[in-house]
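Worked example 3 (structure in, sequence out).
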């Protein structure tokens, strides 16, 4: 129910009855000014707000564009900070092919280069990865930073001094940093290869760390990769990187996780599709809706057939009689007519034929689906196909029996005489074999064994 509110006092702003839209506009402005004055008189000024005498006409727009006080702002990395991050990264990695402790050394070296910045190891590692992937520095600048960090890697310095060429390459950095740099065209391939190896090292390290922290049953199933030249080159490039990890391995389980992580890294580098679901979960065997409907029909038909057979054999319970009447509903069949037994037999045979037809349909689908899946599995992974065809080994999960119980069990089977109910044919066979002369007993002596075995 709507209530009509009638204002009895004067309108805000000292106006009683101005006509038109101006009255409402003036009233709202006056009320807004009154609320603003009340708020300014009761609430203390913000610490970051300028004094009243310094507030200009455009200060309100400036304050609206400024971020809220206390909000978290991301740190802006300058060119020098990015360069120091790469210097710390190259110096921490050095000439090693792969290690897991370089992040701590990189964080310590970066703290020495930038003592005023406070970043975590994870943030610094993410920043270095972003710098290498987003091409903030060009190839020549990356090579210069690498040589500054690791002087021993200055292998192509003589070639660079012998045939320098001026190449202008814009870097993907701030707008102010876009100057021509000196690049040796002979080093482009080497630097690109080094960057690719660094990318492979990072992927390998991430895969090994991820595999170590993942249970065995939750590891993804790796696909089979084609034996192409590119895939072979990736494997040859990752093999030397595994030396450091394998030398530090303490047991067979850790070696297995390292090798599985290397295989996972190869799949990620070449772009192979890796299933995210673990081995324990597998694929859900969803039953088609039409098969569920047919199975429900078969179950109902079997139940009805059983009730009809019970009624034909003389079971006249009310539930059975009610089911039989429902089975013959819509037909001119009465339970009191003389040929009711024949009608029951015809109805039972009809239901059995329906059940057989429905079951044959499901059986044809199952056989076809099995053949299709086995053909696909034979083309992709023959080993898994042969393993699936083998009989599953059924082993008990309870405690193993002791020796005394085992001996008593087998003695009870073979030592105790048992009277079997033998058929008459056994007597016929025994009478036929009675005239056969038994063979002489064979006695084997140690001398016979010595002669037979050289």
């Amino acid at each position: 129910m709507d209530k009509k509110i009638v204002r009895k006092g004067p309108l805000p702003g000292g106006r009683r009855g101005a006509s038109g839209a101006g009255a409402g506009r003036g009233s709202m402005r006056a009320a807004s000014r009154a609320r603003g004055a009340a708020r300014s008189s009761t609430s203390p000024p913000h610490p970051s707000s300028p004094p009243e005498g310094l507030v200009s006409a455009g200060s309100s727009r400036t304050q609206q564009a400024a971020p809220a006080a206390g909000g978290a702002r991301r740190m802006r990395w300058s060119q020098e900070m990015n360069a120091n991050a790469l210097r710390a990264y190259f110096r921490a990695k050095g000439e090693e092919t792969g290690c897991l402790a370089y992040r701590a050394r990189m964080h310590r070296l970066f703290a020495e280069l930038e003592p005023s910045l406070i970043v975590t190891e994870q943030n610094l590692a993410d920043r270095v990865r972003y710098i290498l992937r987003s091409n903030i520095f060009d190839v020549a600048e990356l090579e210069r930073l690498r040589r500054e960090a690791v002087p021993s890697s200055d292998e192509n310095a003589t070639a660079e001094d012998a045939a320098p060429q001026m190449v202008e390459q814009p870097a993907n950095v701030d707008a102010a940093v876009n100057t021509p740099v000196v690049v040796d065209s002979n080093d482009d391939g080497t630097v690109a290869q080094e960057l690719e190896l660094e990318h492979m090292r990072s992927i390998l390290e991430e895969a090994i760390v991820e595999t170590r922290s993942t249970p065995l049953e939750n590891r993804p199933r790796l696909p089979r990769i084609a034996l192409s030249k590119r895939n072979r080159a990736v494997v040859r490039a990752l093999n030397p990187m595994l030396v450091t990890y394998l030398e530090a391995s303490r047991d067979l389980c850790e070696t297995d996780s390292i090798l599985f992580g290397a295989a996972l890294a190869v799949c990620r580098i070449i772009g192979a599709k890796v299933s995210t679901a673990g081995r324990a979960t597998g694929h859900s065997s969803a039953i088609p809706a039409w098969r569920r409907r047919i199975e429900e029909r078969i179950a109902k038909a079997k139940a009805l057939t059983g009730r009809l057979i019970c009624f034909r054999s003389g079971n006249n319970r009310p539930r059975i009689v009610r089911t039989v009447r429902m089975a013959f509903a819509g037909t001119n069949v009465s339970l009191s007519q003389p040929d009711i037994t024949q009608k029951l037999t015809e109805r039972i045979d009809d239901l059995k034929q329906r059940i057989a037809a429905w079951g044959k349909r499901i059986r044809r689908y199952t056989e076809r689906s099995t053949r299709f899946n086995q053909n696909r599995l034979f083309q992709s992974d023959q080993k898994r196909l042969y393993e699936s065809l083998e009989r599953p080994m059924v082993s008990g999960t309870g405690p193993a029996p002791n020796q005394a119980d085992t001996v008593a069990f087998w003695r009870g089977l073979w030592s105790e005489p048992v009277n079997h109910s033998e058929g008459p044919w056994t007597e016929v066979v025994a009478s036929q074999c009675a005239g056969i002369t038994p063979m002489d007993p064979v006695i084997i002596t140690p001398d016979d064994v010595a002669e037979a075995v050289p």
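Notes: The two ends are 116 Å apart (CA to CA). The first strand starts at residue 165 and ends at 167.
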